[in-house]
Amino acid sequence: MTRIDDLPVRDELRGKSPYGAPQLDVPVRLNVNESPYPMPEQLVRRIAERVSDAARTLNRYPDRDAVVLRTQLADYLTRTTGHRLGPNQIWAANGSNEILQQLLQAFGGPGRTALGFDPSYSMHPLISRGTGTGWISGPRTAEFDIDTEAAVAAIHEHRPDVVFVCSPNNPTGTAVSPETVLALYEAAQAASGGPGALVVVDEAYAEFSHRPSLLSLIEGRPTLVISRTMSKAFGAAGLRLGYLAADPAVVDAVQLVRLPYHLSAVTQATAHAALEFSDTLLGYVEELKAERDRLVVELRVLGCEVTESDANFVQFGRFADPHDVWQRLLDHGVLVRDNGVPGRLRVTAGTRQENDAFLDAVRAVMKENN
Ligand code: PMP
């Protein structure tokens, strides 16, 4: 049998495995920060209508610039953050992973580096590797916050071309203050010694935060980019629709690397329909925020150490052997995530019933431990 390593693949891919959490068929799946709510039936019908319309012209390539969709996304951000944006400041792609990949294709690449603050979203280093961008792991405090002074020092030391700030951060749930983002942005500009470095604020979980979005910071800062997704707050992980907000020049730059017609007409039509239902979908976000806050409280009552969360998931521990706890929760029918953070696991907020099942399983596992 031929294996990957028998092929003439790039050296940096040898011995590596693909990214991905196990997709196991268990009763309670709280491992990949999905929404537990199916799309409402009215929206399903609206999607069917819009996709039917799109189907009539599938003989043609889709709108390569996705103008209608980008206009709607700009309106959504303007409405929910109070910061006015136009479609020329928005770009959309197949999930925010593709957004991040396009950014690294345009602003990273061989001979360039990206810096992030670990533990954070593990696709940041993986997409860097995939685009030939060097990866530098920056520091975080014991409470999983970004220590502004230490972070600024790391930027001055390494002079990266791209800086990733994930807020709220996956997998820890911690949000970053606007003051810290500004300090990192200024350090990145000063350290670059050239036209500046790109600072990418990954706001995949922004809608779940107790704090306002960092979006308004892009004003007057042409190398600050906000990345967003419909996978989490819109409960549409299966849709694959991510987007960015930035200076129009950044939007022009990613168009140099995007594949032509990358966003299918079916995707554009479906996203359009989901955006028409954004108020309904944001109602689910409010329920999930309340459930997330309940998980933090209840896990503490059970004796866990819990990191404050601004996302739709909660990091909890501490366990001598988190993988063993992960397995025993799975034995109770509950799938959570072991992100490899020492002593910790991560649980996504589900429905009230799912969260109760999870808390019962934690209670049982803690009892077995004593
Ligand atoms: N950024 C962060 C921080 C994430 O956690 C995720 C999803 N796990 C993504 C980006 C990518 O999401 P998508 O490609 O579904 O938009």
TrEMBL record:
One of its GO terms (molecular function) is pyridoxal phosphate binding. The keyword Glycoprotein does not apply. SUPFAM superfamilies: PLP-dependent transferases (SSF53383). Its cofactor is pyridoxal 5'-phosphate. Pathway: Amino-acid biosynthesis; L-histidine biosynthesis; L-histidine from 5-phospho-alpha-D-ribose 1-diphosphate: step 7/9. It is an enzyme of class 2 (transferase). GO terms for biological process: L-histidine biosynthetic process. Pfam families: Aminotran_1_2 (PF00155). It catalyses: L-histidinol phosphate + 2-oxoglutarate = 3-(imidazol-4-yl)-2-oxopropyl phosphate + L-glutamate. Its EC number is 2.6.1.9. Residues 28-361 form the Aminotransferase class I/classII large domain. Residues 1-20 are annotated as: Disordered. Residues 1-15 have a biased composition (Basic and acidic residues). The keyword Amino-acid biosynthesis applies. NCBIfam families: hisC, PRK03317.1. This is Histidinol-phosphate aminotransferase. It comes from Streptomyces hainanensis. The gene is hisC.
